[in-house]
Specification:
Blueprint lengths: L4 E2 L6 E4 L7 H6 L2 E7 L13 E5 L13 H13 L3 E5 L6 H14 L3 H9 L9 H12 L10 H18 L22 E5 L5 E4 L30 E3 L7 H4 L5 E5 L6 E6 L3 E2 L5 E2 L2 E5 L3 E5 H4 L24
Parallel strand pairs: 2-5, 3-4, 3-5
Antiparallel strand pairs: 1-2, 6-7, 6-14, 8-13, 9-10, 10-13, 11-12
Helix pairs in contact: 2-3, 3-4, 3-5
């Protein structure tokens, strides 16, 4: 009698392909009560009686979003194990999709990274190999600290936004207005090293946490979160930025590229190109949303920190203190 591929340890967790469902004696012996199917294809429902059954309809392709299903698949697996039975996770071949869901569960259960969980699962089934896109999603999931609700995570939201941008770029179109992520409306608690102001009217346009550092890959980590940046290299003529809310009237017009004007004095301060833009340092940035160094002044933190003086402070505020952060 063929045995099931059991994940090592005390958990009654099994992984396999479609043919595993026909090993009825082995399933009965393992006391399997829950079956998680991770595939998109017609299923013979008779194979799933009398099991508690859950289906996640995804294809085994790099750009499939399996990450959004991790909380649900983790909960389903845990419910089966809590009930004292065994849980089988399968896809077509028991190699990529099913392995990804088992790895996600082990990451959350044991607080381990994707590589450790993958090595663990391979002890049960040596052929497992999540596709490259799924591995990147597992890495992001780990850096997000395996939350129970991924959709509320800024890292996940940013990742979805980047996918939308890539899709729009592939189609030669600007992203739909409602899908543009204006970063200052989502992230507001990061420390800023400096502020960028319009050289003509001194209106604050951005702070350093919204800079896209295109010459140091490590600045943008695998969870699409930005580490503190100290600005572009000296030979760059532009500051590349995330979309910010003051750009909304221009960016929501549906144009592939255009100019950015200061919202106060309407001076041309930069430009954008959803398909990407090459910096003067020869690096290519996608999407390209930039402010020109020749039109912008960089003000170090010490020069504008007085604006954020706590209530009750006695020191006088600078003349431009009315430009608060929410105006970005």
């Amino acid at each position: 009698m063929a045995l099931l591929d059991k994940v090592p340890g005390d958990l009654s967790l099994y992984i396999g392909g479609m043919f595993t469902l026909r090993r009825r004696d082995a399933l009965h012996q393992a006391n399997v009560t829950h079956v998680l199917s991770v595939l998109r294809m017609p299923l013979d429902q008779s194979l799933f009686s009398p099991f508690r059954h859950m289906v996640i309809e995804v294809d085994d392709v790099d750009d499939e979003n399996l990450l959004e299903h991790f909380p649900a698949t983790n909960q389903f697996i845990q419910e089966g194990l809590n009930g004292g039975g065994g849980v089988l996770v399968h896809c077509a071949m028991g190699k990529s999709r099913s392995a990804t869901c088992v790895i996600a569960y082990l990451m959350q259960k044991h607080n381990i990274n994707p590589s450790e969980a993958l090595a663990y699962v391979r002890q049960a089934r040596s052929i497992v190999e999540p596709n490259e896109g799924f591995m990147k999603q597992l890495e992001l999931y780990g850096r997000m600290r395996t939350p129970d609700n991924v959709e509320d995570s800024p890292a996940y939201q940013r990742w979805v936004y980047q996918r939308e941008i890539e899709l729009s770029r592939a189609c030669g179109q600007a992203p739909e207005a409602e899908k543009i992520r204006f970063e200052d409306e989502h992230v507001s608690d990061q420390a800023a090293n400096f502020e960028l102001r319009c050289r003509k009217c001194r209106r604050p346009l951005a702070t350093s946490q919204y800079l896209v550092s295109h010459s140091t890959p490590s600045v943008i980590n695998d969870q699409n979160e930005r580490s503190p940046s100290v600005g572009p290299p000296p030979n760059c003529a532009h500051y590349f930025l995330d979309p910010l809310s003051w750009m909304r009237p221009e960016l929501e017009q549906g144009k592939l590229d255009g100019r950015l004007e200061c919202p106060k004095c309407h001076t041309n301060v930069g430009k954008y190109a959803w398909q990407g833009m090459q910096c003067s340092c020869s690096e290519w940035v996608v999407p390209g949303i930039s402010l020109s160094k020749s039109r912008i002044d960089e003000v170090k933190k010490s020069a504008f920190s007085e604006i954020r003086r706590p209530p009750g402070a006695t020191a006088p505020l600078p003349a431009n203190a009315s430009h608060s952060r929410q105006n970005l």
